[in-house]
Amino acid sequence: MDTTRLKENQTPVETPNSVIVIFTLPNSDTYVSGLLRVFLDGLRQIKTTDYSETTSSTITMVTAPATGEVLRLDYVKQ
Question: Which long-range contacts (CB under 8 A, 24 or more apart) does 38-42 make?
Answer without folding.
Answer: 38/71, 38/72, 38/73, 39/71, 39/72, 39/73, 39/74, 40/65, 40/69, 40/70, 40/71, 41/69, 41/70, 42/70, 42/72
